[in-house]
Every structure is written in structure tokens, then in C-alpha cells.
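Could you join me in thinking about how sequence relates to backbone shape in a protein? To get us started, please write out a protein record for me. Would you write everything just below, so we can both look at the same thing?
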Amino acid sequence: MCMKRFLLSLLVLVLFAGKSHALPSIMFTEERHDFGEVKQGEKLEYEFHFKNIGDETLIIKKLTAS
């Protein structure tokens, strides 16, 4: 009985061991964009493209512009 419990525990550890180190990782095609000289009040728009190259779901909770 004790051996069965040990083997079951070992199996659970092996199955979930890889999952504990899985992390999301973001990769951008470019990290900066310069709009150049801009007139006051002019509306600007630009899209940054990125990809999750990690092993887990990437969740973006907050964005800021500078």
C-alpha cells in the first residue's frame, strides 16, 4: 500500500513538473516607433506586432505610452 502511494505521488510529480516552469514570453517585431515632428492636436496611430513565444498564456494587464 505504501509503495502504491509512493508511485502515484511520483507519477503526479513527473506529470506536473514541466508545467511549473512554463512561462509566457513576449517578442516584438520592433520595440520603438518615432513619429518624427508632430503638430499639436494631431492624432497619431501605430500598431506594434508581437507574439507569445512562451509555453503559457500571455496576459497583458496594463499598457502605457511614453
Summary: The beta strands are 26-28, 50-52. The chain is about 25% helix and 10% strand.
